[in-house]
Amino acid sequence: MVKMASEKLSLVVLKGWSDLKDKTLIEKCMEWGILKRDVMCLACAPDKCKMTLRKDSNEIDGYRWRCNNVRSKRKQKRKRCTYSKSLRTGTFFEKSKLPMWKILGFVQLWTKNVAADVISEELDISKHTVVDWGSFCREVTFDAIMNRRTKIGGPGQKVQIDVCKFGQRKYNRGRVVEGQWVFGGVDEASGEVFMTIMENRTSETLIPMIKKFIKPGTTIVSDFFKVSGCLKEEDFEHLKVSHKIDFVDTNSGANTSKIEALWSAVRSSLPRYNRKKSFAGHLSKYLFLKSCKLRKVNCLMEFCKEAGDLYNGCNNKETTTDEFEEIDDFDMI
C-alpha cells in the first residue's frame, strides 16, 4: 500500500522530473514499483547476474539495461557479456513510443476522471491513443480488483446487499438491449464495498457469492422483495446455519440507503454508451478508485504498484482479458 505523498503529483511535476535529463523519473517509477530495480541477464542464466542501467542516447528514456558480466568457459578465453535490453521491456511502458512522463500523466488524469478530450489536449496525444491507454489502464485495475477481493462485514457488523441491472436500454420499436446484473454490498460502518457480475440471479449463483464476499457472523440488510427473487426461504436458513449470517428486512425499519447510493455513484461513473463486454473494466476502475479513497492512498502511486505487479510477473499469471474489447468510442476511457 502506498500512502499519500506529501508532494503534489501534477503534469508539471512529472514533466519536470523528465526534463532533468537524469534518472529522477526512472527512480520514482522504481520507487512506486512500475519499473524493476533489479533486472537479471538472460544471456548469463543460470548465473544470477544483475544488469546495470546505462545511459543510451538512442533510447526514448535515455537509459538501457546492460550486462557487463565477464564469463569464462573451459579452454576458452574470458568474454564480456554484451547482452542488453530496453528499460521498458516487460513493463507497462513496453511497445509505447510516448515519453514516460506522458504515460504517467495519462494515468494521473485518468484516475481523476478527467474527460477524454481534455486529456487529449493536455498531453497532446490523439483520440485513438487516449482510447487505447484507457483500455490498458482498465486491464490493470481489473487485475488489481480481482486480486484484492477481501471479505467485508463480520460479527456485529451490518452489510447492505442488493442486486442491480446496468446497461439495459429500450430503443425505438420496443427493442431492448440486454443489460448486466451486478451483486454488491457495502459495510455500513467502514464503507468497504464489493461488487461482482452475475451471469444469472439463481440461488446457485448468489449463495456462493454471499459466502465469498461476506464474513461469517455478519448481519445482512436487504430489500428482500428484490433478493427473494434469487433466494428461497430454505436458502436463507442454509446461510444462517452454515455461515452464521442473520438477515434484516427493510420492512423491519432498516434501510438500504448506502447500497442505493453506491448504485447511483457507479451509474454516474460509467460511460453513457457502455458495452457489456467492457463493463467489467469500467466497474473495476470505479472499485479501484473507491478503494484508494477508503485506504487514503495516492491513486497514481497505487496504480503504478499494481501495474508493476501485473507486468513484472509478481502475480505469476496472465491477465484474463476476455472482459475487454477494443473500443472506438472516444468517451469510453
UniProtKB/TrEMBL annotation:
PANTHER family: DDE_TNP_IS1595 DOMAIN-CONTAINING PROTEIN, SI:DKEY-17M8.2. It comes from the Eukaryota. InterPro entries: IS1016-like_transposase (IPR053164), Tnp_ISXO2-like (IPR024445). It comes from Laodelphax striatellus. This is ISXO2-like transposase domain-containing protein. Residues 151-291 form the ISXO2-like transposase domain. SMART domains: DDE_Tnp_IS1595.
